[in-house]
Design goal:
Layout (H helix, E strand, L loop, with lengths): L1 E3 L14 E5 L5 H11 L10 H10 L2 E7 L2 E10 L4 E9 L8 H13 L4 E3 L7 H6 L16
Length: 150
């Protein structure tokens, strides 16, 4: 586990030095499900299907976490080849700590971990669109979903 702290300072609550970020390839399904519930993202993830969540964690290529006093408060889980494309499939921050820069820092660290020149993309939950726009992310007009297609 690689850990260090960010440069940005949260608005309230824990100071930046209290948030410890790390690459955690072995993050447990239980911890992941817990932070999904506390972030509000659980309603959009298969949290009741534990074997599926375990497979999601096992097959992720990059999992970056944020912890305060050892408690998981944020996670960025990605699927990537580290050279061409990175899909940030889950970005979750405990509601009690949202608005303090943790999500932005998780995205920054994901971007740094996959390297320069790697395209980074995500699908936004409807309630999070404003967050991504305020974070300076660019909307892509040519993205398509083909989940339910042959």
């Amino acid at each position: 586990m690689t850990a260090d702290t960010p440069a940005d300072t949260p608005k309230a609550g824990p100071v930046a030095d209290d948030v410890v970020y790390a690459v955690e390839p072995d993050l447990s399904a239980d911890d992941f499900i817990d932070v999904l519930h506390r972030s509000g993202l659980a309603e959009r993830r298969p949290v009741a299907d534990r074997p599926r969540v375990e497979a999601m964690m096992r097959n992720a290529d990059l999992t970056i976490t944020a912890r305060v006093e050892g408690r998981l408060v944020g996670v960025a889980r990605s699927v990537t080849d580290f050279v061409y494309c990175c899909y940030l499939s889950d970005l979750a921050v405990d509601r009690a700590l949202q608005g303090r820069g943790i999500g932005k820092e998780l995205m920054r660290r994901t971007r740094a971990a996959v390297g320069e020149g790697t395209m980074c993309l995500l699908l936004s939950a409807p309630k999070a669109v404003t967050f991504y726009e305020q974070a300076g992310m660019e909307r892509h007009e040519r993205a398509f979903l083909f989940t339910d297609k042959p």
